[in-house]
């Protein structure tokens, strides 16, 4: 959350590349400290550095990717960010079962070093350059991104026109986010993050072992099955992002997580009443796997894609920080309360998550716009009327 609070301001002031470089330095410091730590407080400090670094990255990476990619590929490329997270987490889960945690921290240094060095070989966001009136660099970057023989004049003109319109507006302050013209964008961005987290994903993921064991299954086998299904489903979601659109993916994904929570809750309820004692544990396995697969399909990545698309440049830093803070706050709240809820009622916990996932479908159907194959400027102008060209 600390990283998320400052992520937007850092990305606005120092550029997208600068923000990524800073976050990787923080992660490097964190991982190195874990490797050499001899006392517990150093481990805590290391985790703090890693947390701040990831808080910054979680905002700036999808924003950067959205700002450099053409509209017909933007969803797929931005969703690939979530795919890489899924691959990284799954790999570390599997590797972490057989090696010491200090060795795991050494392995964690590798992606941080690669990305820190890689920052010096990638272009700055053309839209950030335009926002800072660096028009020639903006056009040069667009040429390098689209190919030297591509005609980028129309795209450059649209970015320039929209940016000049924004420059007539005063520099946004935090309270400006709550002005009427930004209401829909803020509700959509914050709402998606709330529903993403309060659907219970971190409770399910972080406590998968104990869920399977409580249901009478092998925690190790269940967790490995869950990890195995996440990556292919995330790949499917990434491929479909620019074909099916964001809204259908979100609604199908949320409906799947709703059904998964219902089946898991039903499994625990049947066991409470000593019914279907042989079949009920497998119902929990099916439910958790369905939840995990469905979440990976859309709810895991699409909210970050939409967050990177809907806010105009003059408020993107502040709005993105707020949305990212809400995401991590929700993550903490679900992680913290999950065990208490399970002690109160295992079935009740999953039925609560089921209701929230069902409400997500309604929220998406009523409020979330389809952003497929629209430029960022078109999306933002339609959602934030005051920033459209006059």
Automatic annotation (TrEMBL):
<feature type="transmembrane region" description="Helical">
    <location>
        <begin position="21"/>
        <end position="42"/>
    </location>
</feature>
<dbReference type="GO" id="GO:0016020">
    <property type="term" value="C:membrane"/>
</dbReference>
<feature type="transmembrane region" description="Helical">
    <location>
        <begin position="350"/>
        <end position="368"/>
    </location>
</feature>
<dbReference type="InterPro" id="IPR050549">
    <property type="entry name" value="MFS_Trehalose_Transporter"/>
</dbReference>
<keyword id="KW-0762">Sugar transport</keyword>
<dbReference type="Pfam" id="PF00083">
    <property type="entry name" value="Sugar_tr"/>
</dbReference>
<dbReference type="InterPro" id="IPR036259">
    <property type="entry name" value="MFS_trans_sf"/>
</dbReference>
<keyword id="KW-1133">Transmembrane helix</keyword>
<keyword id="KW-0472">Membrane</keyword>
<keyword id="KW-0813">Transport</keyword>
<comment type="similarity">
    <text>Belongs to the major facilitator superfamily. Sugar transporter (TC 2.A.1.1) family.</text>
</comment>
<dbReference type="GO" id="GO:0051119">
    <property type="term" value="F:sugar transmembrane transporter activity"/>
</dbReference>
<dbReference type="InterPro" id="IPR044775">
    <property type="entry name" value="MFS_ERD6/Tret1-like"/>
</dbReference>
<feature type="transmembrane region" description="Helical">
    <location>
        <begin position="101"/>
        <end position="122"/>
    </location>
</feature>
<keyword id="KW-0812">Transmembrane</keyword>
<feature type="domain" description="Major facilitator superfamily (MFS) profile">
    <location>
        <begin position="1"/>
        <end position="372"/>
    </location>
</feature>
<feature type="transmembrane region" description="Helical">
    <location>
        <begin position="318"/>
        <end position="338"/>
    </location>
</feature>
<feature type="transmembrane region" description="Helical">
    <location>
        <begin position="248"/>
        <end position="270"/>
    </location>
</feature>
<dbReference type="InterPro" id="IPR005828">
    <property type="entry name" value="MFS_sugar_transport-like"/>
</dbReference>
<dbReference type="InterPro" id="IPR003663">
    <property type="entry name" value="Sugar/inositol_transpt"/>
</dbReference>
<feature type="transmembrane region" description="Helical">
    <location>
        <begin position="77"/>
        <end position="95"/>
    </location>
</feature>
<dbReference type="InterPro" id="IPR020846">
    <property type="entry name" value="MFS_dom"/>
</dbReference>
<feature type="transmembrane region" description="Helical">
    <location>
        <begin position="221"/>
        <end position="241"/>
    </location>
</feature>
<feature type="transmembrane region" description="Helical">
    <location>
        <begin position="186"/>
        <end position="209"/>
    </location>
</feature>
<feature type="transmembrane region" description="Helical">
    <location>
        <begin position="282"/>
        <end position="306"/>
    </location>
</feature>
<protein>
    <recommendedName>
        <fullName>Major facilitator superfamily (MFS) profile domain-containing protein</fullName>
    </recommendedName>
</protein>
<feature type="transmembrane region" description="Helical">
    <location>
        <begin position="48"/>
        <end position="65"/>
    </location>
</feature>
<dbReference type="InterPro" id="IPR005829">
    <property type="entry name" value="Sugar_transporter_CS"/>
</dbReference>
